[in-house]
Specification:
Layout lengths: L20 H20 L7 E5 L6 H10 L3 E6 L4 H6 L4 E4 L21 E5 L2
Parallel strand pairs: 1-2, 1-4, 2-3
């Protein structure tokens, strides 16, 4: 089996020097996994997407891609990552260290969380 595979130069980007090959592989994994789950959920404009683990490897891509597809994104993460998830474009961020997203007061959200699609689950 060859160590390399042919690929057009337009489909490549250089790996940053300060990133290991393992870290570079993880970036690819997160993005492809998020895309797979969003397609499986058939996310469409106007739908609500609940991203549990929105600051994780898959979640950061899922939040951005769901927003790109026109969904209203609610990201669930820990206190240390609330600003990160906001910067990804989430319409609402729930700090799981302060509140249980399953118990969130539905009157404060623009749509019932029962209609949200759980896209990913991170730890």
């Amino acid at each position: 089996m060859p160590n390399t595979l042919p690929c057009p130069k337009s489909g490549l980007a250089p790996k940053p020097k300060n990133m290991t090959f393992e870290e570079a592989a993880a970036v690819f994994f997160g993005g492809v996994s998020a895309l797979y789950f969003l397609r499986k959920a058939r996310i469409r404009p106007g739908q609500r997407a609940l991203i549990y683990g929105a600051s994780g490897r898959v979640g950061v891509f899922a939040a951005q891609l769901a927003k790109h597809y026109g969904a209203r994104v609610t990201g669930v993460c820990g206190a240390a990552n609330v600003e990160l998830v906001k910067s990804l474009g989430a319409d609402q961020v729930i700090d799981c260290t302060r509140e249980d997203f399953r118990q969130t007061d539905r009157s404060t959200t623009s749509s019932s969380m029962r209609r949200a699609r759980v896209v990913t689950r991170g730890v």
